[in-house]
Amino acid sequence: MSILFSRQCEYALQAVMYLALKPAGTMTSIKELTKRLNIPYHFLAKILQNLTYKGLLSSQKGQSGGFALGMSAKDITLFHIVEAIDGVDFTNKCILGFSECSGKNPCAVHNKWGVMREQIFEMLVNKNIAQMAKEMKKPEYRQFFD
Amino acid sequence: MSILFSRQCEYALQAVMYLALKPAGTMTSIKELTKRLNIPYHFLAKILQNLTYKGLLSSQKGQSGGFALGMSAKDITLFHIVEAIDGVDFTNKCILGFSECSGKNPCAVHNKWGVMREQIFEMLVNKNIAQMAKEMKKPEYRQFFD
DNA sequence: TTAATTTAAGACAAATTAGTCTGAAATAGA
DNA sequence: TCTATTTCAGACTAATTTGTCTTAAATTAA
Predict the structure, then answer these.
(1) Could you tell me the distance in Å between the CA of residue A131 and the C1' of nucleotide D9?
(2) Nearest-CA distance B19 → chain A (Å)
(3) In sequence order, what E strands does chain B have?
(4) In angstroms, rounded to a whole number, what is the distance separating the alpha carbons of residues B121 and B99?
(5) CB-based contacts with strand D under 7 Å?
(6) Rounded to an integer, what distance in angstroms lies between the CA atom of residue A22 and that of residue A79?
């Protein structure tokens, strides 16, 4: 079981954060990304194509081509990526799997999980990729990419 | 994508809670469980056999046979079930999928997620099946089963 | 003892997710 | 212009998860 996000989504999040670390205007190839992040080449290719199609990334073919953020890093949140890849089911599904579970018909942990879900949502929404890139640039984070 | 728990695990949690509602000493058949909980018959059978093998349930063959809790309802928590079915990876895996992520090498949401993960853990551990059954007996919960 | 009921066990099938491979199209640089 | 590089597109394979089917074994009640 992957936790909360699909493998594909994890890869997407990692790749986008990596791109956010690059100086604006530079293109990064799949080759570099897969090498640094240890993600299967063609699998990542498809993921990035998908994000490009949805406007979160931009791409360019040919030599010195590659991928870059499709909009300003401060306008992209983790939630944008999760939404594009996994969808937002986790924001409204019962954690115990009861299809009837709702505010009117709460399961035994409905309210507790509701609070946590909200926190997860805030975590994904409140921090944009620019801020995260800044944190990742601190020495203690660099090792993920250098 | 299922959220946090696998489908199998959700089914297990629902079934165990259902069993906890039954008077001690009574056996409940798979037939009744699948009918009430809307879970595929043979799939649930395998899940319950697994939980029985691990001691969380007890079973009896033959007419008027079925399944019952394998220990006192107050000694079983949601965590026991999750642990038995999905394992406990979610307690130590990076939510962004970084294999190197740790307290020493935190990812950008390591600490935030750490707090939430701990809350989820508490939610699963702090409430036993007996307490939950009690809540489920309140009229507003009964509809899940009646 | 016999028949009906129920779990036990394991093979099998379907669906989903993850990953691979090949060739085409675009682009930049020599 | 030609070649190397890179994304694009889609078919294909592999692995995992979910779900089905069949038969055996145990148990109970008639």
Answers:
(1) 34
(2) 15
(3) 57-60, 66-69
(4) 21
(5) A 1, 29-31, 42, 45-46, 48-49, 52-53, 59-67; B 2, 6-8, 11, 40-43, 45-46, 60-65
(6) 20
Structure tokens that stand for B138 in this block: 């309140």
Helix (H, G, I), strand (E, B) or coil at A86: coil
Side chain identity at B120, as an amino acid letter? I
Q: A108 vs B141: CB contact, 8 Å cut-off?
A: yes
For B87-108, write each residue's pLDDT tens digit.
999 999 999 999 889 888 889 8
Residues of chain B below pLDDT 70: 1-2, 143, 146
Backbone phi, then psi, for B39, in 5-degree steps?
-125, 140
pLDDT of residue B1: 58
Residue B2 to chain A, least CA–CA distance (Å):
8
In which band, very low, low, confident or very high, does the pLDDT at A1 lie, cut at 50, 70 and 90?
A: low
pTM above 0.90, yes or no: yes
